[in-house]
């Protein structure tokens, strides 16, 4: 028996008293009772005032009567549908469908009564299905089934976020045949949208198209709120879109002499009714903007709502009428040497631009401890460093917005990951406690604040900032971001994650346990403290190979895919020139020098006589290896000096010692997987890293690169609210190992000074790359004399 919905438009005429149009008219209870007793006819919406309770006695499921909200034409019209099922016939044939997402006041997720004869609607790719009465909008069906279909305008046919692609024909998999007229005809709203903005062929607006018969409807990725964004890197990572800030369109009730509420209160009520948003306090700057915006938009406004994981939502901005956006967010990896940012579209997660700047705090000290001591020795030094980094962050925001050709004032969110010292200096907290045991943080919890509190005035004045939690006094929010990005605690394999930077973050773990430490590698891996070093930019040498016979190098520079001995290289690099060596280039250069016998295991560069190449030229009491001489054309002479080798040795020893300390703690000598992360982690060759002894010995195929894992962690936290909660939980479960007070760290550091290592075996490396067993130390200690070689056992 088909259930029958009976209704009458009980709001006679306009529902208003003609003598006093503002006076609200109650629908007589008798009229409603009468409606319940009417014979089955059809379904007609019943409009009543929202504040009026349904006067029917015994309203509810038992009586087969439902009183549910309806999506109105205009939000300010409080309307509701009274759906009645006939008490005659067989009520068992009717099925009551309740959306699990239904909340009181959500007008789009209404309860309905359907029968087996109602059209079947199947959504793909989710596979969710259900029956809906003829005439139900696709958006409403999607909402009731919990299908992820976007909407900013709440179904007014303005935003086009609800686009769907109906499919027609025979679908044996679903057991349905979809007729050409399974959806209502193209309506005027769709036609107008198509004319103005263009709809892709085959697309319909989900809020306009209504269901007429069985239908299969595809929700394309761009119409999904929680669409998944795949990170383009060596290890793919899926980020589910669920940003804290989104745009919503609402209709606000006009002021009424009989309802003396403020505009803000009516906006709050509208947001609650339409989007279940509970708005917190409004900053004065926005409050003063509210009235003109509401009136300019004829009581329709688009709100940028920041919804934290817990607590009340915040209004970041509002625009009259429909504002399409987009809004943007910045994910910032604030490192000791460089600061890197990704500018993301908060609607779809797309990275519009990535940019970096050198951290200007370098002038106060190249590593973290020298910055802490600058703050200790110079009253007001911490404030100086805070001002420097904040100024650079504003510059970075402006530059990245310029690169992406967007207004920086549309950047409404920032997420920061940084080490503890940078964390404190960014916040304007003196880092002095981090320079002495027990290395107490001012706070280890995550922070959510206004970006303006961090001095970020280049972006939106109400923009929010989220700073990931720190793990410990020397293991910061950057390590937490790496844990979020690489998730070692979710791996079966024992995984070592090394985020290479001025301060390396190292994580070791699997499902049973995760350990973390940080290690002071210094800025050498980032091209600083290297005689010909530079940051990774066009013109920088990033790859080097040295011929084992001739000892001549060939190289590639950033911005050109050709090798230096390829035809056309000179022309291809004419604009950028060959300007220096970046971090990945110096790692390959040193490793190649070791592999080709230009460098011994202790890290000494041989003379021309010892090595057989004039490229090893005297440089004071030591030697340098000439990579490229551009002086004839006014370019630089690019060399690798003995000082460069020592800087790399110090950096790699610190890295290895940190990893080894965690392995001791875990009581293992080998790991299953090594993930190299860091701003240039994706560019480091695993083979060369192992020749240097940067990382423990492992099969090469077990060593992968993850790119800027800390930056990716920041991006995940920017685009997915739940991940913030997740990492706040995960950091509490990580065991911290403090390298600064661990005596074994020093032992491991000294042993790791050799290339690749003084005592630890490297069987996988030996099988792959037999390293020359030689020593250039002639006893004079300067490595400049003679060509005497002696055999030496390599560790
Ligand atoms: S929901 Fe905005 S156009 Fe359909």
From TrEMBL:
GO terms for molecular function: iron-sulfur cluster binding. Residues 776-795 are annotated as: Disordered. Gene3D superfamilies: 3.10.20.30, 3.10.20.880, Domain of unknown function (DUF4445) (3.30.420.480). It holds the Pfam family Raco_middle. Transmembrane segments: none annotated. Coiled coil: none annotated. Residues 119-223 form the 2Fe-2S ferredoxin-type domain. It comes from the Bacteria. This is Uncharacterized 2Fe-2 and 4Fe-4S clusters-containing protein, contains DUF4445 domain. It comes from Aliiruegeria lutimaris.
């Amino acid at each position: 028996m088909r259930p029958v919905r009976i209704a009458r438009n009980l709001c006679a005429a306009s529902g208003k008293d003609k003598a006093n149009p503002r006076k609200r008219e109650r629908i007589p209870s008798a009229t409603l009772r009468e409606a319940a007793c009417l014979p089955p006819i059809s379904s007609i919406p019943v409009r009543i005032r929202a504040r009026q309770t349904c006067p029917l006695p015994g309203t509810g499921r038992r009586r087969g009567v439902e009183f549910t909200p309806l999506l109105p034409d205009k939000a300010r019209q409080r309307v509701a549908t009274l759906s009645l099922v006939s008490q005659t016939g067989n009520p068992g044939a009717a099925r009551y469908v309740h959306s699990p997402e239904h909340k009181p006041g959500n007008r789009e997720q209404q309860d309905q009564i359907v029968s087996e004869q109602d059209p079947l609607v199947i959504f793909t790719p989710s596979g969710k299905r259900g029956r809906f009465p003829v005439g139900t909008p696709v958006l409403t069906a999607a909402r009731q089934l919990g299908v992820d279909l976007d909407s900013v305008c709440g179904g007014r046919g303005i935003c086009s976020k609800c686009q769907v692609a109906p499919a027609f024909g025979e679908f044996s998999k679903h057991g349905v045949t979809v007729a050409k007229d399974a959806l209502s005809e193209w309506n005027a709203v769709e036609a107008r949208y198509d004319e103005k903005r263009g709809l892709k062929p085959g697309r319909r607006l989900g809020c306009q198209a209504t269901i007429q018969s069985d239908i299969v409807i595809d929700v394309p990725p761009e119409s999904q709120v929680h669409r998944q964004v795949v990170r383009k890197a060596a290890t793919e990572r899926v980020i589910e879109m669920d940003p804290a800030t989104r745009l919503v369109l609402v209709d606000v009730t006009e002021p009424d002499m009989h309802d003396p509420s403020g505009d803000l209160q009516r906006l709050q009520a509208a947001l609650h009714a339409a989007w279940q948003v509970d708005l917190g306090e409004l900053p004065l700057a926005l409050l003063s903007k509210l009235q003109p915006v509401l009136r300019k938009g004829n009581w329709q406004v688009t709100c940028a709502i920041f919804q934290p994981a817990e607590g009340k939502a915040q209004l970041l901005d509002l625009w009259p009428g429909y504002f399409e956006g987009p809004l943007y967010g910045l994910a910032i990896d604030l490192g000791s040497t460089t600061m890197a940012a990704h500018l993301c579209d908060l609607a779809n997660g797309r990275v519009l631009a990535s940019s970096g700047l050198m951290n200007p705090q370098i002038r106060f000290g190249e590593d973290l401890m020298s910055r802490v001591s600058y703050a200790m020795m110079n009253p007001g030094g911490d404030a100086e460093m805070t001002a420097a980094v904040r100024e650079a962050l504003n510059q970075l925001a402006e530059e990245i917005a310029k690169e992406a050709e967007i207004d920086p004032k549309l950047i409404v969110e920032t997420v920061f990951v940084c080490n503890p010292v940078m964390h404190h200096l960014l916040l304007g907290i003196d880092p002095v406690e981090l320079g002495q045991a027990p290395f107490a943080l001012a706070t280890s919890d995550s922070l959510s604040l206004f970006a303006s509190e961090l001095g970020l005035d280049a972006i939106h004045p109400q923009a929010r900032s989220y700073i990931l939690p720190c793990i410990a006094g020397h293991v910061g929010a950057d390590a937490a971001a790496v844990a979020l990005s690489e998730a070692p605690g979710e791996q079966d394999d024992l995984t070592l994650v090394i985020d290479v930077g001025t301060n390396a973050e190292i994580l070791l773990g699997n499902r049973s346990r995760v350990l973390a430490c940080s290690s002071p590698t210094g800025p050498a891996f980032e091209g600083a403290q290297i005689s010909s070093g530079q940051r990774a930019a066009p013109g920088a040498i990033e790859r080097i190979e040295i011929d084992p016979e001739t000892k001549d190098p060939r190289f590639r520079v950033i911005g050109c895919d050709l090798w230096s001995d390829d035809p056309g290289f000179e022309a291809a690099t004419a604009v950028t020139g060959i300007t220096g060596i970046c971090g990945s280039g110096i790692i390959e250069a040193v490793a190649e020098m070791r592999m080709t016998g230009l460098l011994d295991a202790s890290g000494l560069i041989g003379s021309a006589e010892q090595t057989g190449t004039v490229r090893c030229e005297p440089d004071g009491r030591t030697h340098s290896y000439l990579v490229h001489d551009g002086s004839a054309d006014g370019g630089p002479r690019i060399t690798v000096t003995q000082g460069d080798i020592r800087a790399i040795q110090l950096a790699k020893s610190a890295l290895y010692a940190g990893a080894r300390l965690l392995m001791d703690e875990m009581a293992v000598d080998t790991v299953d997987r090594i993930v190299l992360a860091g701003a240039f982690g994706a560019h480091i060759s695993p083979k060369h890293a192992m020749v240097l002894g940067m990382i423990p010995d492992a099969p090469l195929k077990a060593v992968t690169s993850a790119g800027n894992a800390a930056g990716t962690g920041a991006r995940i936290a920017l685009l997915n609210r739940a991940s913030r909660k997740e990492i706040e939980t995960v950091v509490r479960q990580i065991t911290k190992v403090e390298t600064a007070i661990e005596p074994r760290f020093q032992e491991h550091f000294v042993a790791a000074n050799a290339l690749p290592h003084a005592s630890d075996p490297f069987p996988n490396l030996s099988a792959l790359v037999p390293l020359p067993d030689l020593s250039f130390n002639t006893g004079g200690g300067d490595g400049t004399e003679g060509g005497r070689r002696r055999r030496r056992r390599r560790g």
